[in-house]
């Protein structure tokens, strides 16, 4: 089944059995528990909604299908998904190699929870060069954690090359595929073992649900993570499962439009006299344009850029916009803009984020699906204010 077809149909085949109503859309099964015919006979395999729920199961099948995985699991947030993966794989005092440009909340989870409380050792490296990953690997490295493109600097890493290096050293590879979405990038096909998503972003796509997902094909790993989905309990609710399943049906259409608008804006930023740098993998000037063409099917809708001058000019620009909402998050139909240093990445100490390149003049844009002319007009009037 092709992507667009799976996005509409997977997990939602109408049921025609006796008593079934033939819904073409998965119903929202709100029941927290399921009655049994007898003590040892759960009805249809369902016992209690934390362990399994028909609406969540439909979404999980759809998530697996769009990521080209055998298994999908839905969580109450992207970070709940990440936490459950990490606690399923790590033992006290083990080691992890991670890209040094990561979503701030992921870095906070790793440092403040897994490192400080459980003694996990993290090495953050610039994974744009796979050799840096290679030199950081140790005998006790359990996994390599990647984002590509990264949040917020839109950097890429060669997933296939790093997977080869990590596997040779006995480490797993986990890719946060949130920025590309399953429409534009397939990390499992490139050799990754596990994909995680914040479904809050492109996958749901309408900024009305917080959720997370894990997709993978290896049965043993799946059983461990599924066990902890129930044991730790970070599940997605039936209502949110319905919303995310509905969002996925238009993912392909939305991603095409996000990308089209983003390319127009990236070119506009590139030619702007008040901007010193633009980061978008669909620009030929992006240092990793060739890698983007090789490993992605498109460039997605996230752009970062640096405003010339002190960080104050960036803040003045942000305050002058009216159509772009000044908000964290990304991947919704509406355009959002933010200041990573004081918003999404504020939890990272200043010297750490500046070392990576998250400066006070950096601005991150999640390009929506509006008419791009209205977006340019709003940006233009805000640039006039600085
Ligand atoms: C790349 C990336 N991964 C993970 C997350 C965490 O997801 P959530 O906010 O759904 O917990 C985010 C949130 O912004 C993100 O941008």
Walk me through the structure.
This protein is of the alpha/beta class and 386 residues long. The chain has two domains: 3-248, Type I PLP-dependent aspartate aminotransferase-like (Major domain) (Aspartate Aminotransferase, domain 2, 3-Layer(aba) Sandwich); 251-383, Alpha-Beta Complex (Aspartate Aminotransferase, domain 1), CATH 3.90.1150.10. The protein contains 14 helices and twelve strands. Strands 1-7-6-5-4-2-3 form a seven-stranded mixed beta sheet, sandwiched between helices. Helix 7 links the parallel strand 5 (172-176) and strand 6 (194-198). Helix 2 (54-66) packs parallel to helix 9 (238-248). The mean pLDDT is 96. The chain binds pyridoxal-5'-phosphate. Residues 77-79, 103, 105-106, 147, 151, 176, 178-179, 198, 200, 210, 212, 329 line the site of pyridoxal-5'-phosphate (PLP). Pyridoxal-5'-phosphate is lined by residues 77-79, 103, 105-106, 147, 151, 176, 178-179, 198, 200, 210, 212, 329.
């Amino acid at each position: 089944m092709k992507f667009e077809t799976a996005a509409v149909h997977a997990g939602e085949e109408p049921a025609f059995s006796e008593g079934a109503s033939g819904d073409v859309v998965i119903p929202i099964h709100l029941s927290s528990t399921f009655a049994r015919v007898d003590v040892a006979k759960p009805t249809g395999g369902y016992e209690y909604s934390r362990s399994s729920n028909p609406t969540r199961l439909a979404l999980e099948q759809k998530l697996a299908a769009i990521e080209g995985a055998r298994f999908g699991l839905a969580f109450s947030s992207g970070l709940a998904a990440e936490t459950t993966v990490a606690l399923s794989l790590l033992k006290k005092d083990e080691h992890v190699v991670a890209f040094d440009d990561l979503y701030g909340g992921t870095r906070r989870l790793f440092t403040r929870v897994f490192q400080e409380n459980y003694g996990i050792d993290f090495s953050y490296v610039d994974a744009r060069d796979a050799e840096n990953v290679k030199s950081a690997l140790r005998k006790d490295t359990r996994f390599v954690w990647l984002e590509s493109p990264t949040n917020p600097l839109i950097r890429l890493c060669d997933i296939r090359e790093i997977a080869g290096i990590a596997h040779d050293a006995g480490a797993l590879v986990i890719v946060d595929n949130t920025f590309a979405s399953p429409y534009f990038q397939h990390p499992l096909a490139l050799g990754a073992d596990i994909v995680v998503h914040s479904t809050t972003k492109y996958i749901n796509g309408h900024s009305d649900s917080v959720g997370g997902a894990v997709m993978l094909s290896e049965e043993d790993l799946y059983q461990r993570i599924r066990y902890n989905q129930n044991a730790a309990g970070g599940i997605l609710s039936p209502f949110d499962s319905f919303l995310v399943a509905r969002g996925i049906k238009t993912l392909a259409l939305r991603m095409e439009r996000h990308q089209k608008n983003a390319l127009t804006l990236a070119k506009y930023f590139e030619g702007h006299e008040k901007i010193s740098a633009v980061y978008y993998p669909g620009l030929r000037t992006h240092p990793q344009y060739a890698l983007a063409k090789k490993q992605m099917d498109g460039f997605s809708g996230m752009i970062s850029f640096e405003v010339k001058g002190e960080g104050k000019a960036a803040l003045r620009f942000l305050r002058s916009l009216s159509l772009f909402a000044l908000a964290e998050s990304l991947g919704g139909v509406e355009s959002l803009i933010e200041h990573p240093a004081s918003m999404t990445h504020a939890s990272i100490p200043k010297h750490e984020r500046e070392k990576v390149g998250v400066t006070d003049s950096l601005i991150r844009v999640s390009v929506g699906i509006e008419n791009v002319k209205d977006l340019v007009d709003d940006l233009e009037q805000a640039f006039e204010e600085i």
